[in-house]
Protein: LppX_LprAFG lipoprotein
Organism: Paenalkalicoccus suaedae
Amino acid sequence: MKKLLVLSGVSLLTLAACNTEDAQDVESILTSSIEAMEEVESYAADMEMTQTMGMGDGESLTMTSTGEMIMSNNPLALEQRMEMDMGEMNMGEGPMAYTAYFSEEEGFFMEEPTLGGWIKLPESEMDAILQMEQMSPQEQLRPLQSYISELSLETTDDEYIITLSGEDIDMNAFMQEFQGLGVEGMDEMMEVMEEIDVSSLNYVIHIDKETNYQTEAQIDMVMSMDMMGQSFDSEQSIHMLFRDFNEVGPVEIPQEVIDNAQDLEDMMDAEMDFEMDEDMEIEMEEDVDVEEDTEE
């Protein structure tokens, strides 16, 4: 990843078409960035995602998410703060905000946004969570190495801007590149992708010339999907800024979170027992009503 630089004034951009020489330049830049980011011990990231889905009746639903993340290695740990605005689906409650923590040593803890308190996910989910968190930014660059001839390169005084864009990109093949990175659930995602038609993709990354860190990523997609016999159109935009390399962390989970978190499995078991007790009470009341009717 690379240090974010705020550019002021007007920069002269040089657009390079990916002929043989330029393709070698792009490949070299990607390789250098991957190697540089593998040495990063900690970083922070800001994310914003917007998704607009056409509902098929002329109406649309827009959902937005914003968040901040701090990640540190050795051991791997994460702190994430998110806010989600689901528009009309908020049911008048406003945006939903929550905080989450993860560490290899303590596990995964998530704030319960509606009732308050903290939830700890079961150990059976730890391997899946660990695999997802190990999907580091440098690993996200590797699939681009298979599309060197499709990439365009822009340069400024301070950074490289690499773009993968087009309407003819085989999205199943592109997502397949991520399958070998140890991402839990990728098989299920691939099955979903088979039902999705991606009509447009624009994937832009910014790499700092001095540090070779990736500082920014922008992904824009237009797609359509069939679900339960209905067709939905969707536009999705994801913007990420990476910053504070080797200047944050190590991430530590507050002790009060660890001490007060409720185990998710215990909560589910308690809820199931409560529902069973309610069902038994209803059955007993119905039996009493039947007996009274019989006596009459």
